[in-house]
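Recap from last week: sequence in, structure out.
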Amino acid sequence: MQFSRYINLGFALAGLIAWVLLTKTSAAVMASMEVTDNALVGDMFRISTVVGLALGAGLTIYAYSRQDVQTWSSEVAVELSKVTWPDWEETKKNTIVVIIFAIVLSAILSSFDFFWKWLTDLILLQG
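Predicted structure tokens:
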């Protein structure tokens, strides 16, 4: 398994994201239940932080221990290794195309908006 380092890094990153999201969720749940979220160490490390850490670590360990999740992760890593990533010049050109397209589309939509506003004002002011 040549991609195990990236797979493990992905699980670690998923665990950190789960920690942050579950900390926010547990803080919101505690606030809605009117439970005090006391500070444990400093002001940044609270009860909701510990709950989020425990839930995030538990979910990550559970997902890591499942064989179907390991298989899926390995398949994703193999498929990503087959992707041809664009070089820097191609990325810059495509970014410029997207920006120009967004500007042109914004101009078209704003012209429609001004036209319909003008037409609506014309109809309402005469009626």
